[in-house]
Amino acid sequence: MTTDATGGNLLTDNPALYEARFPDPERLAGRWAEDCLRRYGAGPRVLDTGCGTGRDAAYLHRAGRTVTGADLSEAMLDHARVHHPGPGYVTADLRLFDLGQDTFDAVVCLDSALLYCHTNDELDGFLGSCRRALRPGGLLVAEMRNGAFFLGRTELLDAPSVHRFTWRGVGYRSTTTLSVDRGAQLLRRTRVWTADDGSPPTEQRSAWRLLLPQELRHFLAVHGFEVLALHDGPGPRTDPPWREGDLPRSTADADRLHLVARLQHGL
């Protein structure tokens, strides 16, 4: 078995493979984000941070918004420009970004991208960057794993989950194991890839910050955001998933956390 020690990632380095592994043919994530933006009256200019392959940014563009997609992966951005045109795409690290004089009516951050802010300083960097990028009254819309779910809950931990799919005629098998690093407050993920083309197995490791809802509220307040909604679903990655017309539940203890916050005027 080989271990990726170069900082590369099989999925983010191969965006078409990413979309094959995580298909979203109904564009649920983009539709959910657009529903939040409309529900809370966001203006047309949107920044999609951690935009990945550009699927969600392109959906928001088709919904009539002026969209900028930002990501750290050049491979993802190259794919987005070709396969999901419409938005402008820029290279930026969501943990600390500066897009110059551009200002936005909303920042969108989906699929746990916010949780790549592993430390308090990185989370401060993200929220401070959002504050500078947003117009007064602008929205932050985010969707992520919920740290509260893992307090005493172990059904998603330690037991490997296996997913098989075919891409370009090659069969792939991903075996993913999650574990909690309580000292670092991280949800660590080990994923082993095998393929039926004879290539050796590859092991890759990553992690998400385990944020608790009240902890997130505190960080948002410090940076001048008022929480308008913070709930566990329904959303694009809940079971069952969000559908048009669904209203959010009032609880925040399931696996996913959904956030809408407004930057207060005068801050």
From TrEMBL:
Domain named Methyltransferase is located at: 46-138
Q: Name one GO biological process term.
A: methylation
Fetch the Gene3D superfamilies from UniProt.
CAC2371-like domains, Vaccinia Virus protein VP39
Listed GO MF terms: methyltransferase activity
One Pfam family of this protein, by short name? Answer: Methyltransf_25
Which SUPFAM superfamilies does its entry note? S-adenosyl-L-methionine-dependent methyltransferases (SSF53335)
Record's keyword terms, sorted? Methyltransferase, S-adenosyl-L-methionine, Transferase
**Protein name as catalogued:** Class I SAM-dependent methyltransferase
Species whose genome carries this gene = Streptomyces chumphonensis
